[in-house]
Amino acid sequence: MGYRITKIELLHELTGWNTFLRRKIHLIACGGTALTLLNIKPSTKDIDFIVPTDTEYTYLSNTLKDLGYKPVSGYGWSRSDKFVYDLFAGNRIHTTELLESPLKNNNNIPFDEYTYIYLGILNFYDLIISKIFRGTDADFEDCFMLIKTKTQEIDLNILKERFRKTASYDVSEEKVMKNLDNFLKAIKKEGLYAE
Question: Of 14, 26, 31, 163, which is least surrounded by CB within 10 A?
Fold first, then answer.
């Protein structure tokens, strides 16, 4: 297994970024990064952020280039072998298009605010939806942990409705709906869900 970054290391990195920025940037943690910031996972192997505003995304990308970061994948930036920052522009995470901007009311959980960086965590519903869309075992496991930890804050009926609406705009609607069915069966078996 490759290098994993802890919450403390991640926040230290963002403090470093903040010293080089001269304009406000909104970063919304998603994927394993969100779970690490929520103390659900001890670390993450890659760092995932949505930068919802296009002009902020462009500014951050240019700043990272100036700091020696290089594009290493479709969304990834890195300046070492240690870890990759995946930066998603707009309302997208990988191939999942979210229904609304993560900056809209209640679509992110405020985490911290630096001089130039606003750091939020994607709301639980969109976080789960984006992981179930990918449908890997690791994504399902992350969703199990989130639902177990935040049972009182997640209404599975709202999740299903929001998932269906998000899936209706996706080219792989049938496939991702099958992922949802498989996930619901799995959490039902764990006693986390009753129809």
Answer: 14
